[in-house]
Amino acid sequence: MATIGFIGAGNMAEAIIKGLISKKVYSCDEINISDISDNRLDYMKSAYGINAFKYNNLVVSSSDMAVLAVKPQIAGEVLESLDDFPCDKPVISIAAGLKIKKITDLLGDIPVIRVMPNTPALVGWGAAGLFANKKGEKHLPDAQKIFSAIGEAFVLSSEEDMNIVTALSGSGPAYFFLFMEEMINAAVELGLDEKTASELTMQTALGAAMLAKHRSDAGEKPEDLRRKVASPGGTTEAALKELENNQLGAIVMLAVSRAKQRSEELSEV
Ligand SMILES: NC(=O)C1=CN([C@@H]2O[C@H](COP(=O)(O)OP(=O)(O)OC[C@H]3O[C@@H](n4cnc5c(N)ncnc54)[C@H](O)[C@@H]3O)[C@@H](O)[C@H]2O)C=CC1
Ligand SMILES: O=C(O)[C@@H]1CCC=N1
């Protein structure tokens, strides 16, 4: 699929690039990156054999599609520094909170696809929400192809939904990692060795996610599967009561709402 260039080659860009190479969507020589950090450029070049550029403008001119993958707080100044941006070159922006309008205000009336990916893309299990402006719609199939190759891609019906998707699946892997950390800590504190606790936790998380995904096709929801684990008067019921009594639902609501609010705040910077 021609060439793709990443402006900013940090954690999320690396997850996407690794996924794209392993799924053979792009070959190494079709991927360009630029980054302010020489160390980062050296690392990415030697790890993946891709083309590394010191200047963002060079990545844009060498690529058919540009991916904006810098932090939202500096996205404005990075966009401003891109000279004479071609009006038909599509930009995929993965920056949390950054609105399409801000990009077109700075680069002109170009095709833009906003995407909120997540780091499991690194292993081909990403989840991404996509939304394109009018000019970007004809590039949506290409964007969907990219993000479907490294996970699942969902086209959103409004740009506003991007804030919720950011709080849900963009940040979501971190919520599950924290829950896993806490499960491992609890098992270790109760006396299990760390390696066994860690492996059992990871396999349980994987198994629960796989089961939920498979059974959703048959109309079974996570709450139905939860009931099948929790025998009346059994161990799971005892644990779930503690989670409920300690307001797990309210805590999750608070956390996801706060992430959504932060995404909205980042739209203003
Ligand atoms: N990490 C994640 O799980 C996700 C991140 N995102 C979004 O992806 C974007 C990047 O996030 P991360 O990869 O986590 O951050 P990061 O900090 O790992 O990567 C950003 C990269 O940009 C480089 N950079 C800084 N200034 C630059 C400049 N002027 N020109 C070129 N490169 C420059 C940095 O050296 C760094 O390598 C953010 O906008 C974030 O909202 C979206 C979804 C998930
Ligand atoms: O924490 C962040 O701001 C980014 C966006 C979603 C995941 N990481």
Automatic annotation (TrEMBL):
**Skewed-composition ranges (Basic and acidic residues):** 214-227
Q: Which residues bind NADP(+)?
A: I7, G8, A9, G10, N11, M12, A69, V70, K71, P72
Q: Which UniProt keywords apply?
A: Amino-acid biosynthesis, Cytoplasm, NADP, Oxidoreductase, Proline biosynthesis
Residue intervals of the Pyrroline-5-carboxylate reductase catalytic N-terminal domain:
3-97
The secretion signal range is none
User: What InterPro entries does UniProt report for this protein, alphabetically?
Assistant: 6-PGluconate_DH-like_C_sf, NAD(P)-bd_dom_sf, P5C_Rdtase_cat_N, P5CR-like_CS, P5CR_dimer, Pyrroline-COOH_reductase
The protein's role, per its UniProt record: Catalyzes the reduction of 1-pyrroline-5-carboxylate (PCA) to L-proline.
Identification of the protein by name: Pyrroline-5-carboxylate reductase
The species is Sedimentisphaera cyanobacteriorum
